[in-house]
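Late entry, acetoacetyl-coenzyme A complex.
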Amino acid sequence: MLTEDQELFRRTVREFAEREIAPVAAEFDEAEAYPADNVRKMGELGLMGLTVPQEYGGAGAGAMEYAIAMEEVSRACAAHSVILTVNVSLVCEPIYKFGTDEQRSRFLPPLASGQTVGAYCLSEPSSGSDARHMQTRAERDGDHYVLNGTKNFITNGGVAGVYLVYAASDPSGGQICAFLVEADRPGLSPGKKERKLGIRASTTTQVFLEDCRVPLANRLGEDGDGFKIAMLTLDGGRIGIAAQAVGIAQAAYEAALAYAKERQAFGHPIADFQGLQWMLADMHVRIEAARLLTYQAAQFKDRGLPYSKEASMAKLHASETATWVTTKAIQIHGGYGYMREYAVQRYFRDAKITEIYEGTSEIQRLVIARHLLRS
Ligand code: CAA
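Prediction complete; structure with ligand written out below:
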């Protein structure tokens, strides 16, 4: 399905990820440390602004290249790739798509170059799946809005230079707006870094907004456009998470395959046993199916076709595949798979979040079913 250029691009990203990211992934996971140098290097390679047009400092690539890059970075380390995907598809893309020329010129170049990263602030302590029912409010005061509320589980919290914050501008909460809030704007403060099961090198925090005055010039789109911006943005983001899940699953499968050929039991490499062969075959088939669904969604996006259902299908299947494949990869490794020295336990811990963030599997099924019932 890939063109020669896309194959070449995959090789370039793979070589980069194998050289710069894979060797340090376990260390950053163990230390729960943010990989600032590697984020800068991903920026130098053009990955942090992959789909941003060149005039705003990006690489001007399409959704297919983005899926390929996400797959390859995730094959090395999913914590690195979540930093990348939030920046590219949840922050840069809506700025380009819904921003004014002034907003594009002001915000995109530093984000696209990896000089800083963006964060996407939709979820709240009491609203995750039910994203529309947020408590954060944006009260209009002349040519400013005053933001108050708390955002939850914010990837890149504490390290981001720009926060894309959703808040309702009416007391009933129906009129949602999107705002670009700079990290140093008084009234915005990130909470402490959350301690997570996986993707531990990425930061996740709450974000507090306390009488945070944001100029009208920082509102993305019109008053009341916010929910549609949030949903359209997540459609693209879900392709990124699908590709992330494919990359994690691929890494786990490759580790399991290598181990099965090397490990001896009952006088044979364990790969000689049919029970394991069937596991490897199922892992491979499921990963290929997830990859094809992901590329299909990316191609729909690149061709300008509606792709919301395709993105949800890809994310649903790929994330459940990643959890299943990484579980089997540990099983093939036996007791060693449970040990922290082996990478498969990291893949297993990292895989689980792909079934939760950017919409749980239950939400993906709901989105898919709504499309089916409407058609
Ligand atoms: N594209 C464009 N418009 C859309 C849309 C889409 N994909 N989905 C919904 N809309 C529009 C609808 O057409 C509707 O418009 P009208 O009012 O004009 O009719 C409006 O938005 C409301 O839509 P719904 O009635 O479908 O809204 P809902 O309240 O029933 O919820 C939902 C829809 C699909 C459940 C949505 O709330 C959702 O996706 N929830 C999950 C949220 C989520 O994914 N959060 C992830 C957090 S971000 C994250 O994880 C980032 C990270 O750090 C990695």
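The mean pLDDT is 98. Will revisit in the morning.
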